[in-house]
Records
---
Amino acid sequence: MKVMVTGGAGFIGSHLVDRFIEEGHDVVVVDDLSTGKKKNLNKEAIFYKVDIQSSRLHRIIQKERPEIISHHAAQMDVRKSVDDPAFDAKSNILGLINLVECAVKNGTRRIVFASSGGAIYGEQVTFPASEDHSTHPLSPYGISKLSGEHYLYYYQKICGLECATLRYGNVYGPRQDPHGEAGVVAIFAEKLLKGEQATINGNGMQTRDYVYVKDVVEANMAVINMKANDTFNVGTGIETTVNQLYKHLLEITASDLKEIHGPEKMGEQKRSCLNTKKIYKDAEWEPTVLLREGLENTVAYFKEL
Ligand SMILES: NC(=O)c1ccc[n+]([C@@H]2O[C@H](COP(=O)([O-])OP(=O)(O)OC[C@H]3O[C@@H](n4cnc5c(N)ncnc54)[C@H](O)[C@@H]3O)[C@@H](O)[C@H]2O)c1
């Protein structure tokens, strides 16, 4: 089967590419390398360095004719989306429309879309949030991801494109970029390993649902060949505070650095946690990597760099 992975040079996308290749699929990667890295690229994949907003994408999809597209390319930094909402919307909404238009015109059967359970529900009312929780995103990034879901619903209903949406929790693991604003595990792990002080925003009691990248890849594998057009949360159902996360990482890195708190980030969500009963029931997926084990693997990766 031919699969196109947009964002295949990035953190999650590159792990997914490796897994598809391991399964014997032909893989095409589309990535503009804005945050993705050449060193993440699997040598067995065909690579096109291209922005998903570009008209060149039409020629690429016309030539490659992927049966399935896994859409992971996105501007994924919540802070950046607040600073420049138009940039976020161009990449995450106009880019998605360009991609899906090309897909529909060239016979792509199915799209799997990487959405965000952390961003689209907004400040949660019930815990953990199931897929039918109200959606009131509190950032332009959350809005653009939710818009992507709405566009895919339209393409599915009107154009017959099969679509599955995966709403990820906070994904962490090897290859995550420690230099951005997103990815607190990577940021803390790298700093602690270098003996540099990390700062926790606010009182550190904000919670997130941390899910290991290998589990996220398996969630993608579980829905890639389903016939269903559906939306699934991908998380663990467990809330972890930033303080707890920091404590784990202090222990794993054997660091004696202190817990230092900075000012609260304006607009940051307080609690986030996803109910994953639906994907378990429909696709038999459940997370397998415990937080401590995933953090240990991640620290081991950063130690090797
Ligand atoms: N990491 C998380 O916790 C998380 C949570 C929810 C959803 N997601 C979604 O998962 C996907 C992958 O995220 P990630 O954490 O691997 O981030 P990432 O930044 O490592 O990956 C995104 C990739 O897309 C590429 N890209 C960005 N804009 C592009 C464009 N306009 N054209 C072509 N390529 C472009 C980047 O170069 C990068 O390789 C994103 O869609 C993100 O919104 C991530």
---
Amino acid sequence: MPRVINISIDQKIQEKNDLIASRIRQKRQELDIPMIDIMGSVGSGKTSILEYFSREYSIDKKLLVINGDLATDIDAQRISRFGSKCIQINTGRGCHLMAFQIEQALNALDIAEYDFIFVENVGNLICPSSTDVGADKKITVTSVTEGPYVFRKHPVTFRMSDLAILNKVDLASAMDVNIEEIINGSKELYPQLEVVPTSTKTGVGMDIFAKKIGLN
Ligand SMILES: Nc1nc2c(ncn2[C@@H]2O[C@H](COP(=O)(O)OP(=O)(O)O)[C@@H](O)[C@H]2O)c(=O)[nH]1
Ligand SMILES: [Mg+2]
């Protein structure tokens, strides 16, 4: 019995979330503002990627970044130095952002002023993939320092991803990791999923990533 009750509460929360996510999507589509949900482990390079994009593209485009983290506004502080508008949401114990939090953040601004919205979701490879925050695409950032098994160990997240980034390729030899093997392994598991190798340190792959999402 308690199990049935739990499932129904969960479904209600999910239904309400999806309704808000659709509202966000509709509003953005009317204004023609793309939004990308960036997921990935703590330390994979999500904030560094958004710093890079802010440095390279915020002269031509006005970028808005919504950062989700359990505590602190470190990520928002880091990215805003490069010219993007950042809003930090602290989730406390929450392991992912929810659509109502994104809607609250967007409602606090005139979003028509922005050309592109990024969400940096809470850092982990499990929870964020199952929740719609009203974005056009979900992108997972992983890195060579996480070792060669990440794609195999997180099937739900990679199945839900529209694109995967393999970051920190500058560290591949130091980590004794073969990039080609990782990408081929991912292709076997998720034939539809494209993996873009990047480094925020050398800039490798960052223009390809930007092109894939329509940022440049
Ligand atoms: N060598 C190397 N380090 C990176 C790269 N991208 C990020 N880092 C470093 O990885 C650490 C975690 O990055 P951060 O962007 O905070 O990860 P997040 O937790 O996913 O937002 C920082 O020390 C970054 O300087 C990269 O491409 N190469
Ligand atoms: Mg971060």
